[in-house]
Amino acid sequence: MNIKYRLILMNFLQFFVWGAWLLTIGAYWFQTKQWSGTEFGAIFSTMGIASLFMPAIAGIIADRWVNAEKLYGIFHIAGAVLLFILPTVDNPSTFFWLMLLNMVFYMPTIALAISISYSTLNARKMDIVRDYPPIRVWGTVGFIVALWVVSLAGFETSAAQFYVASLASLFLGLYAFTLPKCPPLGKGHKKTLVHALGLNAFSLFKNPQMALFFLSAMLLGASLQLTNAYGDTFLHDFANFPEFKDLIAVKYPAIIMSISQISETLFILAIPFFLKRFGIKKVILFAMIAWVLRFGLFAFGDPGPGLWMIILSCIIYGMAFDFYNISGSLFVEMNSPHSIRSSAQGLFMLMTNGLGAFFGSRISGIVIDKYFLLENGSFDWEGIWLAFSGYALVVAVLFAIFFKHKHDPKQFESFSH
Fold it and tell me: Distance between CA 309 and CA 243 in Å, rounded?
């Protein structure tokens, strides 16, 4: 099989595993198990906790001792076992620890998948800038397909979503052992522990603008977890209203939410134009304003006459996610010393998927339980989404005032071709 197709299959399954449960676990948690929001916030914080240390540890192992594709396979097989066990758990605390262990194995596979792709393309002297994005976009397609499979099969509130993810993870784990060999490249190279863990990238905090940028990355990382955690559950709750319960958006909310990922694939193509025309600061501000609108439209939308607002919110998500994550990654690339660029990208991931995800998940669960539960125990969704929207607006205003960056269109010429 053509190596591009082999890498496409790897990326497709990589995000299929995640998409099978990430947006629908809330419906399972609240409607089937009827556990609390505080405990649910803890579940989503597992991604942040795992991202704090596991990508660095996996990177050291793959650099020094174990082929990247073998480590990748081992992690996915371990994840498959844990996902298979999850439906048998009836205690939220036990569920938390199993999910944390699952994330310990899953989160580093995102970076390992990138490493395997780069290594394989480099070994064949292929153009990474040209050839990798069309391969990676199939990861988003895999996420979308997983959402549709789980939704159409009626698994959104069922434990079966974890079995779907487990089967895909097991297949991917076994498939990984057939991928081209990616041997350790760091054998014999002595590194201090600081360098090995990527901690040298923290020197970037000495630059006030970089420090402000990474702080905003953490705050927006929280926004991403809010939409992942509660979007699907929000639509499921409309089933409690007779006028909405039989509508398509309520029966198959994951399909509606998948518009967000479809939008991602389209906004990626617009980034070069926007960066060259407006510059990093404005593009990131566009992303922040998009988050304000994302949450605000959810506050006033519904599956009936207000469905257009929910769909528009999902379309806007593509800008909110891509314009910050991809543009932010490019900003880090351009403003970090060559010797620590990989570590700097790791730091960017730590701030968004690590600290941002952890604090966003934990704090939102506590706040919702305390301030946004109605007397009958249901969620005050309008209040929840308006609070999230206000939070994103405050972040945007502070970023606009304090972040200083002069736009130079020439910086992006090579990126836009």
Answer: 18
